[in-house]
């Protein structure tokens, strides 16, 4: 749910054009030109870096080198730390040598799950111009003048840092004394340059270089003034990927999976924002940020994680590599052919440069390397990967009861029914509207007897009401975020005037977690789980609908330093609350809208307030693929689209697509018509029911996928190139994907479509084999195919909810490859408890295998004729058609 | 790899009841009786299986008929006897899923959950409820019969009324014509006499007005002609601020000239014939500066210098003179006669229009669909209210539905009578007030049998799409006959 008050004014002026013109109000969000540091970094031209390595300062230890960098123009010194890490990973950290005060770094244990394990670096060569280090099979070459770092995997250069010379590190400096006449400048922007000049003169370093740039000490955007008490503090550097033509990642953008060059647009922006009716295919920031990027080609997959929680922009250019340079440091493949290269330029408003370089070389290796840093998606409780029924709002207990009863009478399984903001007493979270939900426990228990759960929304904004104990408690403990002047920060959100607990503070997180104790959250039960919305955070009357940049957080940090982490911490604290309330026995399920690197450890993410339009159904696939690539594997889009009323065909196709996406939840805006699946015309209802049931039959497969993801950091919903890394034709394919490596999914996302061209990868496999095949897909068919050589576990006895299927038998779908073989596995543990599987692999269950369905056997086995004939679904039919055995 | 198709049989389930497999109803039992070959034929004829494969928790038949007592077939049905209550067929997926779906607990025989057999209690309660329901239904049905009779009477009455009205209207047509003629007859002489009288007055008045205007023109001319040279010239116009066309505070020469019809100066003849007519409405006598509105200081008494502000020019004593003299007695009599004829005609005409209105109302009443037996006609012209926490909802059947805040404020139209839906069980009121950012408001009224006419609930399942629950004896159908009273076919 959720959007912002801009909607009010927006709808008013567009009332007559409602069908035509809804889209994001771009005026509410900054362009690069309107952001001082973005403009400063973006205006830098590639060339020789002013930074040189001061070799005299070099310190070498077993897994780390530390050396000073000198800006030859300003004489400011930085310190470079280069670490070897386990798993083909290196860390490049650049900080001020002697900052006026410490620069913000994300505490270890929050995003990074711990201090990364180090790996020995060998000094291979120490010459006059560079030092070459060995890290496992890779070489790292640090060139002194100008400073740059190149990573060579085998003999291939794969990553270069500062090769374009774009390193720009705005050191902390003293604010220049304001001249009396400048104390109240008529135009702050105009006053800027003068002040900067004054400031530069007073700098200790003899410089004056050309840093006469706007927005250093204060900025104004629309009517919002940012006083920038710390002055300029941004950091930026370029990272190139020689030999690569495609880069991926850096969610969240409504964008294709393969990222585009930003030559003619703004850079991709990472700044968690509540964007009302977002536009598709552009680099504007959305609700979450994961600064991780992969480069992939036929030979290898590498990537970087940019460990910085401040507002960040990333420019991307497609160029050719400087073979001349590389031939000096690597035995480059000879020849005249040009080598492609992707240049990226990263800049953040504050913090330090902290880059993790993950060297693969295979897609699955980089996922593992990234998971070693920020963790993997926690295995969700089984119900969480089943079907969720949500709406803003189920009005009251009777409404919940009726929807529950209707789902049963139409025999449509579902696991969770959700309550949006209207369930509360005046948007005071942790409370209930006493008239609409007088006995919430009875209501929850009413669905729980059928193995179902409920979810309530708990947003981080607290209504400023002295009779609201969560608010007064936080206020009395001085736990609120502070405004620039040190006062309790106040802004507008759903309840009206609100304040926000400072989730950056670990004590505040503990306090928040304690609010989920059954004794604290009246009317909750163990079957109630939580949804965190508006946690970017959304502040209706704030700049860009969020916090002011100078909002003060715990430990003397500004929101400027930690903005992209706020939502991450809200979800973290909530998940910890769910764990705590059950004495660490219950696996939490928390859905969040805002996120950061590492959010995968705390629950699911959805793509926010999308629209009931075909284009939004289509974009859900690339958006979820990108989230998966960035580690947020448990992710989904609102089925049906949040805004507007999808027609029956769109709703049907969306259910079909959603049933093969990791997080499967239908949701709708309060102004839309009711659209629970049983309200569809019978024909559509039956198709939707079949799609949901199909999801339930595949739950053992999904659960196993998530288990593998948990263990290895692998994607759940994967681009084809993850499994077929050498197949170049898949590198930009984002309308078709794999679940694990067994199921190929190509959802129909075009209106009126009755078929689609499916690309079957894998030359030597039992798909059609590296070619496109047209597949019929009338409204009741979902193009899904099982790979030859795989075994997929299913449970064909669909019950009302997933937990009622706990002791039902399995059916194994065995699709033979050309050799007549197939393999597969499945994972089984307690579907709710937090204890994981017995490491010995032993355990007992009442489940059994009732059927093996073998496809692709040259002669039909005698005993199974009738069963094989009885298989009707397109999935199997198509598989028989395409499997070559 | 060897491809084997096998199934694991987890113990053959033994039927709990003798004579028929688990989950089979008595009426179906014969289909499951073992034959000599010990072969079971799927009920849809799609195949045969050995008898021991019945209820072996593996689905063999496409129609699911071989697994009436397990959850193996996704399309199967399990029959609960529910002795003491009503028997029920539940989906096979409900069997042994850990939820008690049959009141006799027969669907949960694997012990995942202990189901209490509460069929007896439910049966008792059900019978009580059914009895109560039947009683209500009987009572309601009786009332309904009454309503139908009443409605028919009412309809008949209205039809008769229409006939009467139409008859009256026909008669009235003749009378109207007659009265119209009379009216015309009386109005002719009346008009003639009046016109004559008025014409005479008009002529008299014109003469007088002319004289008076000439006097006024003379006065003005003399006033304007400050230098008394027998001409009014531009300079003499300029002091008169009322001639300041563009309101810039100065009367320019051009402005003055314009008022003099582009002449530098005019003599009296020209003034009275061409100028005076245009300026007489704005012309003001020049007031000397020292006489200009010097408002008397409120406290200080007026000194000797104080000149009393010019009092309003006394309205000419011509007021009475301007009035037309009364008609003479003869004309008055003609007017009275014509008034009488007009009044008579107007009355008859109004009656005729009233009749049309009444007929339209009655016809619309008669043309409305009041249900199969006109049983809902009785609700027309009545309104019913229901109040919840925030609003009072009002339903005026076959007319409107509305809502008003309890705390006060104006009423919102939720819809006007639209149509029946769902075989006369639902009324739709639509085209209500438009919802901001949404559809026109509408209401679906769900009608069910009840002892009285009563609006029992109002809610808003979807934004601006309301639903009312309305109970009424009109919705009470004839209760089932006593012979099918006993609901338990299997004990």
Explain what you see.
Chain A: Residues 1-23 form the signal peptide. The complex is a heterodimer of chains A (885) and B (491). Chain A has 885 residues and is an alpha+beta fold. In chain A, 21% of the residues lie in helices and 23% in strands. In chain A, strand 25 (491-493) and strand 26 (496-499) form a beta hairpin. The longest helix of chain A is centred in the middle third of the chain and has 16 residues, at 566-581. Chain B has helices at residues 26-29, 119-224, 234-237, 253-259, 268-279, 318-322, 329-367; strands spanning 39-41, 48-50, 77-80, 88-91, 231-233, 265-267, 384-387, 391-396, 400-405, 412-421, 426-431, 442-449, 454-462, 465-472. Chain B starts with 25 loop residues before the first helix and ends in a 19-residue tail after the last strand. Chain B is elongated and about 145 Å long. Among the domains of chain B are: 174-291 and 326-367, no CATH class; 377-475, Cation-dependent Mannose-6-phosphate Receptor, Chain A (Distorted Sandwich). With 491 residues, chain B is α+β, with helices and mostly antiparallel strands. Helix content of chain B is 36%, strand content 16%.
Shape call of chain B:
elongated
Largest sheet of chain B: 8 strands, mixed
Number of strands of chain A: 42
Count the strands of chain B?
Answer: 14
Q: pLDDT below 50 for ≥5 consecutive residues: which ranges of chain A?
A: 1-21, 181-210, 861-885
Count of helical stretches of chain A: 18
Q: What is the CA–CA distance across the termini of chain B?
A: 55 Å
Class from helix and strand fractions of chain B: alpha+beta
Mind summarizing the main beta sheet of chain A?
10 strands, antiparallel
Question: CA-to-CA gap between the ends of chain A?
Answer: 48 Å
The most extensive contact between chains is: A-B, 44 and 33 residues
CATH superfamily of the domain at 717-882 in chain A: Golgi alpha-mannosidase II
**Helix share, percent of chain B:** 25-40%
Q: What's the average pLDDT of chain A?
A: 89
Oligomer: heterodimer
GO molecular function, one term (chain B): calcium ion binding
Signal peptide (chain B): 1-16
GO cellular component, one term (chain B): glucosidase II complex
InterPro entries (chain B): EF-hand-dom_pair, EF_Hand_1_Ca_BS, EF_hand_dom, Gtb1-like, Man6P_isomerase_rcpt-bd_dom_sf, MRH_dom, PRKCSH, PRKCSH_N
